[in-house]
Amino acid sequence: MARGDDLIVGLDVGTTKICAIVAERRAGATDVIGIGTHPSRGLRRGVVVDIDATTDSIRKAVDEAELMAGCEINAVYAGIAGGHIESHNEIGMIAIKDREVKPGDVRRVIEQAQAVAIPADREVVHVLPQEYEIDGQDGIKQPIGMSGVRLIANVHIVTAAVTSVQNVVKCCNKAGLNVIDIVLEPIASSEAVLSPDERELGVALVDMGGGTTDLAVFRNGSIKHSAVLSLGGYHLTNDAAVGLRTPFDQAERVKRRYGCAAPRLLRQDELLVVPGVGGRQPSEVSRKELASFLEPRIEEILGLVREELQTSGFHGRIPAGVVVTGGSSALEGMPELAEEVFELPTRRGLPGGVGGLVDRVQGPEFATGVGLALWGASRPGRQRFRITDRAPFRGIRARMREWFYGDFS
Ligand SMILES: Nc1ncnc2c1ncn2[C@@H]1O[C@H](COP(=O)(O)OP(=O)(O)OP(=O)(O)O)[C@@H](O)[C@H]1O
Ligand SMILES: [Mg+2]
Description:
Blueprint: E1 7-13, E2 17-26, E3 29-39, E4 43-44, E5 47-48, H1 51-69, E6 75-80, E7 86-95, H2 103-113, E8 122-134, E9 137-140, E10 150-161, H3 162-174, E11 178-184, H4 185-193, H5 196-201, E12 203-208, E13 213-219, E14 222-229, H6 233-244, H7 248-258, E15 271-274, E16 283-286, H8 287-311, E17 322-325, H9 334-342, E18 346-348, E19 355-356, H10 367-378, H11 393-404
Parallel strand pairs: 1-6, 3-19, 6-11, 12-17, 17-18
Antiparallel strand pairs: 1-2, 2-3, 4-5, 7-10, 8-9, 8-10, 12-13, 13-14, 15-16
Helix pairs in contact: 1-3, 4-10, 6-7, 6-8, 8-9
Bound molecules: adenosine-5'-triphosphate (ATP) and magnesium ion.
């Protein structure tokens, strides 16, 4: 139990599942030492719609992670997504005080860049520096110590609806957890699945989850664009359920087991039996038929992402192509279909960059959770969000835990 400050916990509050990843920083490496997942009951399209149900799912996922890691979790890095997310790029400009850039100058120029009018109902989630310019010299990554008169910062600003941020924090708080930081989910996922050379050359990360499909574009090593679409695997399952005339949970089961992104990408066809709705007779369908129900929706979702890439001007500026991740990217043929839609090289992104229980977090659905832990490990910060409503049972739980794990030496 003697585990302390070097523990970082990523909490992915997803539409399909809540996932807590406990990581330990050790000699520069980040090791996963605990995982807890629980079906998510209180979110729709990436946004909390039921506080109590979400709190309960969070608590269960965290309990499981605590048990596996043998520690108590008090604070987390939490993810946020949803159609309310907006992002844009801004520029800040200041005079360098002593003709040499100090950390204070960098802070000031970033503050200046975010001094744009943000509506009262929106909250700044991220201000991410892209690059700096000193007296006309651009492309500077680390300006501290450089000489000059005028410092310019290009930053990427992500804002979210205040209420949506508050609801995520509220659920964590009610589950007895402090929130150290809130991180946009595609930004977190990119920490876990993108390589530094992809980020440098130019790459788009597409995280297709259950209720949302998220996009993050990187170039020259920094984030250039981000967006969240309110469509995901849930809609694929729904289409399959309607097409196969089978209950939703059965459609989900066959989609995960036998689904393919398009009939022509199937290496092998076979027949499956699916139960009917309302007690009707089961029916036989082929995998090709199932794929034919999934393909149009995937094309629709990826087509919208392509549009987003085109309107933001990045489609022709990502030579490293596209990396698809998130639970829905596990679908057979997904990278191949994405490659056709984007007309760019595409690969499936599995979480990496961590040690420890690596095999337990190998699926693309763990990209955000692992990414949140990596984000926390590389940016240890002060807590930004405070407990508002600490659950009274927390103290009792902690004490009971002491009895169970008591010092028997
Ligand atoms: N093997 C698989 N084949 C096809 N789809 C899959 C597979 N495994 C998971 N999925 C789908 O992935 C989705 C869940 O992905 P993920 O866990 O990344 O979502 P989430 O993070 O909970 O949701 P979101 O990020 O949208 O809020 C579900 O729709 C599920 O059906
Ligand atoms: Mg997700």
